[in-house]
């Protein structure tokens, strides 16, 4: 939500501007962090009419937009453009209104003397803790241009692999949805009208025809009850997934599903290795790298593993030895990490492992797609064929009797 503020600086000069925050208290805190004394904070009215509209409820900054933004920032920093001009230029060119507001807010914070990392940290929905930590490291080492190049490359890799996995799972989801829709329409619309003819014929119906007719009668009579149960179950599952126990249960289930489980495992290992190698190459300590990676790995199982490893590393244990104590970590990752620690090239080793797991994910996705297509086609054909056969065979026997 956007707030306008009025405040005074250290010289008692009146300052006015806008900040993006979730509440007015958060907006006041943001203004105070700029070194200002708040006079007033007022929420700006959002337009929500159908004509002349700027609807902000559904607006968000996508991962693809962050990837493009990072590449643009890297290019401008390499061209020795000042940070203030970089964000002001990108704000003027942004097509997404939400991204434009974020960039304008960053410009205002930079004008108020804030660092880039602190300004980015005010927008956690756009810039992750990993992103902010990388920028902060670049500021401290004086290598912001290289840091944004690292970030752009990293986000490119992450976006590519996540998009490929999502697209691979989108196809079977679409086919299954069509299959359920077709079967549902046939069982609730087509079969009931035909079943009357079959039952009135007086002939003995095959067992599979009786099963289809019974299923059709059940769906026809209880369709609304079933839909209500499905909606209620979906809501309860969504609420359960928001709890710590629910999130862990769902994440464990994702890793245990045949074929999909190994794919998810390689995806998370790619993210862990890539995050750690990128941060270590930027001069960030192992402890901070583990802290950030644990927060953004997006899986409760691996979050718990990384948190345990972090505790062990703080206690003086080696990274590789701590990894080796967990079943979710492959032996090759443990052994390669041990070699990296002993040779002082852990960041490079993790980068190599990241590329290895990246290729494994690509191969797994290609294999999965290759298997899913014929399986879905055969399943759809068998389902519809069985349904038609259960109806057409009794009709054929009935006509043959005449």
Task: Note the topology.
Elements: E1 2-8, E2 14-20, H1 24-33, E3 37-43, H2 63-78, H3 83-93, H4 97-111, H5 116-121, H6 129-141, H7 144-200, H8 207-241, H9 244-256, H10 260-281, H11 286-296, H12 300-314, H13 319-323, H14 331-343, H15 346-401
Antiparallel strand pairs: 1-2, 1-3
Helix pairs in contact: 2-3, 2-7, 3-4, 6-7, 7-8, 7-10, 7-15, 8-9, 8-15, 9-10, 10-11, 10-15, 11-12, 14-15
Q: What does this protein look like?
A:
The longest helix is centred in the middle third of the chain and has 57 residues, at 144-200. This protein folds into two domains: 1-58, Ubiquitin-like (UB roll); 168-402, Type II secretion system (T2SS), domain F (Receptor-associated Protein, Up-down Bundle), CATH 1.20.81.30. It is mainly alpha-helical and 402 residues long. It has 15 helices and three strands. It is globular and about 100 Å long. It has a three-stranded antiparallel beta sheet.
Structure characteristics:
15 helices; globular; 74% helix; 402 residues; 3-stranded antiparallel β-sheet; 2 domains; mainly alpha; Ubiquitin-like (UB roll); Receptor-associated Protein; single chain
